[in-house]
Amino acid sequence: MIANFAQRILDNVQKIFVGKEEAIRLLLVAVLCEGHVLIEDVPGTGKTTLARALATTLGCTFRRIQFTPDLLPSDITGISWFNQKTQEFEYRPGPIMTQILLADEINRATPRTQSALLEAMQERQVTADGVTRPLERPFLVLATQNPVELEGTFPLPEAQVDRFFLRVTLGYPNSSEENAILERFGAHDPFKDLPPVTHPQEIFEMIEARQRIHVESSIRDYMVKIARATREDADILLGASPRATLALYQASQALAGIRGRNYVIPDDVKCIIAPVLAHRLVISPQAQLRGRNAQDLIHEIVARIPVPVES
């Protein structure tokens, strides 16, 4: 059931976004877990196009915020303004009141503005002028970040990085994919002909189906051992949080469902572990000087932890 749903979404998104099936599947994992995604890559690789194509395919409302240094928290959450006709204050919703929010170049806003997303990303609600308003579900934040250009940017706080369910990198297309991009976008805008192929109610049904995917106790122990190993590694200053362990559990369920199974196997955990954990780890300066990165350390940790096998 989940596999058919995922294939339908994948085929429709690829009418717009050429190639990168693995990146689209990671976004589908996030959708099935109602998790937020940090899309990190150089400009022009299609980060915004992918977000728009996914929102249209899912039949969800979509808003975009261009993050800049002068952006204020109220520009995101909305403001209360005084209506002189009614002599009352009225709430004007901000762009966060949507289902899929594209936070473009999120690291260009100040930490104060970035923190306006914290409540929405965790509790799925917005508090403005003392009034708390729930967000429409499903609610996903797709944030983009340019890892190359650092001038005029602000690093994301660890509390916010940890709220991103997973991180996706796109990379450059190969020659055949780039030719297909020129052919597809050269004559007309393909977004005009892109139909939604699902709706929020079906997404909720798929989320419930994902929650029923079986995770055997030895697989759960395997995930916990990996998470705890990141906290005990000498080269890692900040390891995976309990929120990260829960994200790994849910993402493994989603990946198993996309692959057509109703149970999780160790290969699901191994496949999804880097996108879920790598961006959450803080590497020690000594390890960085030796050329180590989070991906390498995760692979080393996974290699030394015994894989559960069927008795």
From TrEMBL:
It comes from the Bacteria. Pfam families: AAA_3 (PF07726), AAA_lid_2 (PF17863). The keyword ATP-binding applies. GO terms for molecular function: ATP binding; ATP hydrolysis activity. This is AAA+ ATPase domain-containing protein. Belongs to the MoxR family. Keywords: ATP-binding, Nucleotide-binding. Residues 33-174 form the AAA+ ATPase domain. Gene3D superfamilies: Magnesium chelatase subunit I, C-Terminal domain (1.10.8.80), P-loop containing nucleotide triphosphate hydrolases (3.40.50.300).
